[in-house]
Records
---
Amino acid sequence: MLKEYKTGKKYVAGCDEAGRGCLAGPVYAASVILPKGFKHPLLNDSKKMKEGDRLILREVILKEAISWAIGICDHQEIDTINILNASILAMHKAVSKLDILPQFLLIDGNRFKPYIGIEHECVIGGDGIYTCIAAASVLAKTERDLYMLQLHQQFPQYGWDRNKAYATESHRKALIQFGHSPFHRKSFRLNYQTSFDF
């Protein structure tokens, strides 16, 4: 059962990312401030939810959140500053776009760089513990998935409509057969059957 983060702060923003382990495309991050007492029976860690349920929750969160925002770092930024730094930068971008300045940030994971002027706490597995982080995980995941569906129209050979650019067997085989697209992360190395260096 997810729970609300208890603190004396009025506005707590949950932050999470999606796409960190993908071979192509951007990393997306979301920051969400939920109203006090927010609950929904479908809300969970987005990785544990069915795609249809995530899309239902997406609409609920967009409608009911006090404030929400998305931050993006594209594949070129990822290649330049590495995926960890890009994930954190995407979260910072999301926080900076919130309509309301949060007083506290609740971060999924164990690594974060302080956002100037706002306290934070990192929580490993936080998207399966706190509602605000779970909501952020749903938004980050669904927004990125929708973007990858658009990219799939340009590059159907990689199956991004199904794998969303994660390193599935079919995606790896497509890389060997077709080579990399302009959206693949060149800093990522693929070892599948034979060495494939971007």
---
Amino acid sequence: MSELYPPESLRMGFVGHLEELRRRILLSLAGYVLVCCVLFGYGRVLLRWLELPAHGLLPELVFLSPTEAFSAYVQVVLLAALIFSFPFFLYQLWAFLAPALSASLRRVILAWLLFAVVCFAGGLAFTFLILLPAALNFLLNFGVGIARPVISLSKYVSFVSVFLLMGGMVFEIPVLVGMLTEAGVIDSQRLRAGRRYAILFNITAAAILTPTQDVVNLLLFSAPMIVLYEIGILLAMWVERRRAQRNLREGVADDK
């Protein structure tokens, strides 16, 4: 019976963890709403920034219904708030995990989360500066002589939003590989052995995610994923080497 009904202290501990998780989620939502409110007055500036990848390709964006301009305005504010809130979300995750971790493990997790922020920002920049202009250039020039491009504001914002979020998340591949290696789930040898399958998977995923069917844009999508996988292998090797050095130090300390 004691296994089915744990002591009151354990039940309270579990409830306390759930309450802390609930509090962190509410703080994340509150922070996101606050950022949305702050950015709402800058929606027009954000829209102009979002139009930069299409500069010189589109004469202007149009809206086809009375509510479309407002809905696109809200959508770009929500997107920007999500991007700016990403570090805060990760901080709340770290704050939830930190009390259960040792001091050394706490520093390790914090370093990985900071690296995740850097990778996310790098993915956004790469997508905004390289992928989006290339994709728009191909798509819009492909239609020359077939029809005149009249792109609605909401369709453009949705297109760019998906690209940006996808690019930011794809650049988290090294972080995911590094943390799984840190946890002992995978290792560099297994990653190297599965390299050819990873390349095939990355090309297939890029072909599915790429809105165009040309080889240039396929390579623009798949090449970063392959490079990020290789970076993940290097990170896995670094984690394993650091773990071996730590184990050696602990073994020497135990002998003394």
---
Amino acid sequence: MIKGINLTLMIGPGVPVPVPQEALDALTNVEITVASGRASGFQLSFSISTHSPIQTLLLLAGGGSLPPLMRVILIATINGTPNVLMDGVITNVEVAPGIDKGHTTLTITGEDLTAVMNWIDFSGFPFPAMPAELRVLTILSKYAFLGIIPMVIPSILIDVPIPIQEIPRQQGKDLEYIKSLADRVGYVFYLDPGPLPGTNTAYWGPEIKVGMPQPALNTNMDAFTNVESLTFSLDAEKKRLPVLMIQEPISKAPIPIPVPDVTPLNPPLGLIPPIPKHIDFISETANLNPIQAAVIGLTKAAQSSDAVFGSGSLDVLRYGQILKARQLVGVRGAGMAFDGLYYVTEVKHKIKRGEYKQDFKLARNGLVSTLQSVPT
């Protein structure tokens, strides 16, 4: 589609296959959204004729007829390196007839494979003598046929229930139950497509804001500028201070303990954080031991620590690679207050014939970089 970039579209029941060239030629627009805290989604637009076989096939898939699982995989190959952008299922198909028979617009909407985990209610399924980690692995094993590979990080709050006292049972569908188990220990759950087509990593663990940053986003740097737009804002209202309520074991008196938002997995990316204006009292930790309460408190603090936010857009060819969500990225040229490292909270891929752009959102805890220089 673009010089240096090739797009591969695979569609099929269960195991997708590359679409014929006729379908790829009819593809006019691709949008993929990947964001922290929610499922990824995609939308494909085709310009076809009224009698095109592509329309009949995809309408059957989107309308719930056989096969029930119509899978879509999108791969962008940049300078010979394949990047799996999306692996999901079709959830909706819309047709907008044009003024003539040759300009019908077919729009396909879908979500990542977590949508499959939200189909069947398994409420009541028992997990005898299983901590939360093992329950998650057991649930994810049902989806191995979709190429889902679990990456489950054990929590410090490992609690093995004694069968003669309690047998945990699933509440709701697989996706909501896995997320509820993650919330109890301050974890996140999401699917990351790849690294190979047809495989996905199911991550259940802490949200990690450390690691090797992606190439820096440069603005106001003349020939070195690699973004089309980039704006920042400071929203001190979003900064909150969690306060744990611990119960003294002898007198049963409540003891409030403020919790900092700095952890080994959530280091400060800004040197000057705003003073929190809101205090959130966490009462559900009253009956927990100090270690368990501290883990929950630190997680709550990390979730409400961001106060500086950025948004912008870039051209992938000029940037040199695909900007990925849920990772760090550097910013240069925005001034002393806003330069430095940020966590990429959302990325939207926008692909058209001859064009590949991305909209993105960034976040960190405060102003002024904690680094003297930003990695390029």
---
Amino acid sequence: MEAVFFTNRGLQRYQNEDALLIGNKVYSDVDFLLPQSLQFLSDEKFIVADGLGGHRKGNIASFLVLDYLKSQQVTNEKDLQHYLLNAKLVLNQYVKSHPQAYQLGTVLSGIVVLSNKLIVFNIGDARVYQIENKILKRITRDHSYVELLYQRGQIRYEDMRTHPRKNIVTSCLLGDEKETISEIFIKTIPRNLNSTYQFLICSDGLWEMLSDKEIQNLIWTSKSTLELANCLKIEAFEKGAFDNISYIILTI
């Protein structure tokens, strides 16, 4: 199992509020120059957390959530829901001792890899795509205003990237003293140990810069996963890298 991953503040933001959980290590407040690669043998968690830049201390929110989740043993969807709710309570507790950070928050998406299944999830507008036979397919469903418009047929799928209200999320992990999460997407994929699976986990800083079609073209033309990861970085920066950009290409 290989994880190739990248996180960077981009060209417009002064701080990287994204964080990554790669196995049992959290990468927070860092700017990679190039994608990194690690190999894994056992069950692990791989998560992208995108701290809410419009709120206070998004970088702290993304770190606190991943730092909590890294040590939790997830075996099924019920476990995952429980720990995600607890992660929200971690933010609530932080707010109690740091009231100036009220409503710090993060969205996140990821995959829990187990011996017999893969648990895919997201909260907010961070995404998980599956790459199967070099074809890109979105698995998760955004919790956002533009996703609602798209599902109602009011805008095209491509319009979600450029709509003036694209940054409005309808679910996230928020330190607001409430004890519920609006929406959580979870999907379990049975795992065949004789099959290879590949996924792209990313923040909106990537998919707003590159359309699904553009990512698909890079998948077709890249000769390796590391080359694909580097091409994603180059293309996103050439287009302006307006937001923090974080992603994981996971091959199982």
